[in-house]
Amino acid sequence: MVKRAHLKSLGDVDIRLVRVFVAVTESGGLAAAEPELNIGRSTISKHIADLELRMGLKLCNRGPSGFSLTVEGERVLTSARKLLSSIDDFQSSVDNIHTNLAGTLRLGLFDQSTTNPNAFIHTAIQSFDRIAPDVSLEISVEPPTGIEGRVIDGSMDIGIVPMHRQSTSLSYEILYDEWMTLYCGAGHALFESPKGALAGIDLSEQKYAGFGFNSPNMKAGQALGMRRAARVQDEEALSLLIQSGSYLGFLADHVAETFLSKGKVRPVDAERTRYVSTFAAITRKQPEPDRKTQTFLSCLTAAHGKDP
Questions:
Q1: What is the distance between the alpha carbons of residues 292 and 102, in angstroms, rounded to a whole number?
Q2: What is the C-alpha separation between 177 and 290, in angstroms, rounded?
Q3: Where are the alpha helices (DSSP H) in 174-215?
Q4: Which terminus of the chain faces fewer neighbouring Cβ atoms within 10 Å, N or C?
């Protein structure tokens, strides 16, 4: 029996319930959402139940078997994210009226920039915090395609991704480079080969692990005639597969340094396989980024020695 929805218009209480619902979903359950929401599990459960009553829909299954969304819950989650993003956009517009920057800046990164000697994102964050101490930061690590999509749809303010196929909906500010080399792990058939013996070898028959999305990594693998035997979404998973000794794969040289020093990996024909990946900060062209996003972008370009 379909319950009759009581939700005819949105008020502050409804928006609060929606925020609780999104937080629970993104945390993976009621218990996991307690620290995020700073309220008890029983209160969270009541908020979800109230939202379901207001909407006349069962949004999720919760109990001893765990937490999961219903089909209706999945659809409501998509709409809820759009709603909250619109509210944030409105807040950002209001923020632009005030002298002091406020609100939330949502930043997306791709993989391990913290060990890249050419990346100074931490310096940009430090500068930004001095300029805009009242702005909260939300940082997530995602594949480049996910970051680009979220910047375009407005659910993320700024992203830092390797440049590949540029979108006409985005603006790009080049920041730094990252050198990538093909590696194999201890136990691989090529690992014990004499120095120089790997130069010019046919790589097409080797099992290769690469990113499962359009990227410089994909282009480099194809140029060497390699076909992916394993697909990954991040460099952490790629590192594991290479260290298994079963796959070849590209790693950023700054990431591979630790494994090299411990004898866990070795480069494969570095002279031929090495390539450079250029990283850029991306923002959407329309509507124009708000002041806090523009300010953070200026901090990023300054930290990397680029003209604003």
A1: 8
A2: 27
A3: none
A4: N
